Amino acid sequence: MKQASLAHIAVVVAVLAAVPLLTASNVVLNFLVVALLIALVGQGWNVLGGYGGQYSFGHAAFFGTGAYVSAILQTRYGVNAWAAFALGIAGGALVGALIGALTFRSGLKGSYFALVTLAFAEVLRILASVAPITGAGVGILITLDLRPQAFQFQSRAPFYWIILALLAVSFLIVRLIEQSRFGAWLVAVRENEEAAKAVGVNTQRVKLAAMTISAAITAAGGAFYAQYFLFVDSGIAYGPWISIEALLAPIVGGIGTTFGPLLGALVVKMLGELTKLVTGDAPGLDLVIYGGVLILIVAFAPRGIAGLIADLRLRFARARPRLRERAHG
Amino acid sequence: MAEPLLRLERVCKRFDGLLAVDNASFAVEAGRITALIGPNGAGKTTLFSIISGFLTPSEGHIFHGGAEITGMPPHLLARRGIVRTFQVAQPFAGLSVHENIAIGAHLSRRARADALAAAAEVASAVGLGDLLGRPAASLTVAGRKRLELARALAAGPELLLLDEVLAGLNPSEVAAMVPIIRALAERGITILMIEHVMQAVMRLAEHVFVLAQGRIIAEGAPQAVVDDAVVIEAYLGHGAAARLSAAGGAHV
Fold this sequence. Notes:
The complex is a heterodimer of chains A (about 325) and B (about 250).
Chain A: H1 6-22, H2 26-51, H3 60-77, H4 81-105, H5 110-128, E1 140-141, H6 156-179, H7 181-191, H8 193-198, H9 203-229, E2 231-232, H10 234-238, H11 240-253, H12 260-279, H13 285-300, H14 304-328
Antiparallel strand pairs in A: 1-2
Chain B: E1 6-15, E2 18-28, E3 33-37, H1 44-51, E4 59-64, E5 67-68, H2 74-80, E6 82-84, H3 97-105, H4 112-125, H5 141-154, E7 159-163, H6 171-186, E8 190-194, H7 198-204, E9 207-212, E10 215-220, H8 222-227, H9 229-236, H10 240-251
Parallel strand pairs in B: 3-8, 3-9, 6-7, 7-8
Antiparallel strand pairs in B: 1-2, 1-4, 4-5, 9-10
Helix pairs in contact in B: 3-4, 3-5, 4-5
């Protein structure tokens, strides 16, 4: 698969950055902030799942840790919001490294790995719903303080640019991975772990590093969520919904590609909005839609929308000379 | 006498009740091609997996240039220069031929460009130069065997463990592969090969070990080994050597 160049990344980010200049609609901006947030969370999943082939069902563990660490540090310890944001990322990375060390050392693969990551996230959710420090069942409300120093803004545009900047950084991280020896080793682990070992790849360490990076990116999404909505509880932070969003975006968009998570997040979120328009706000219906989309993608476009586009382009390139012949003939 | 490149000392491997490798001791001298032959199920691949770190022996010791390497994981052994191929080719199926070989080359090269350049060189040395851009999954059996060899080679081995790289090839493909393997030995790579294609063993190997039911039953120059009555009986059954020499006598 062709890798995204720096120029591609620059164009995509520039186009997205212009959106708030074209519209002041809060509905549009709110939609895009949430879509880019899911894209970021999905990019985290993509590093481990798309490039490394380790399918996690529990990325909520990292998202939630990012959100909670940031919220707790601000509300209970008076830490500056930006510093709390950074520490939230570090906390998520740490949880990723811990879960990675435990699961990979015990040799868990495939569906076993998926189930155990799901279990870790659920354990954290239940702990967070009873522990006093996380606000137990009530959750944490971050005090309103609409100043940039407090990572809070009057309008949605600054939030939008910040989540876009975070996503841009994630594009660059993925590109760095693609171009590095670590990335080659990570893909080798995905393709054939035994063969990778035979040519000197320390597969445990590669997987652990990928999980740590993956967790850090997803935790950045969680910490951003806390700042944007100023509220966190156990169901939001560690709930299965975010684990599903995290894997749905890259799978729909194109697994193991730079832009797959963004593409997938936009498509899935748009579908979600459309269903709401058609059916009203019936609870759980968006999940039904997600399930349907996932089945269609897995059945008809296993490489996601990005793969579908590549196939169509190839078919078009092959068909073009024939069309020209027909036009001349 | 100098320490051999690889030495096995009374290596045993037990799978529950089954003794797959039984007290195997042998040595591979540096700079030559050594073959490990034996009937199906003799434990050859198990022994390879032990040497390359994929299995740990139940008993015994393995030395690499005098240093004990028993129980070391595969990636550390590969870094020491002991690299294996797999009997059933194990390509990185989703990657191109070029990328497959580059993974091997990355062992000693950090930069992507260096690894890709080295991979292209290795590919032409084993006759894959024209297939660099092809997906590994699209290769024929012969192509996969070459890829298996190329990837191991790109890792820069001192001791190359070839597990039946000729199996499944037709006679002309075998004939094409033999000079490639010999060229590797001439470049100074020590080779230990498991092989069933006896014609190739006779042409390539300087020293042969015969493994049967987990035990080393004979060793020596290729011709001496195939004439050995014990070896013939291991392959063809008890009394076969006597019958063969009687039949051979009748024909002459």
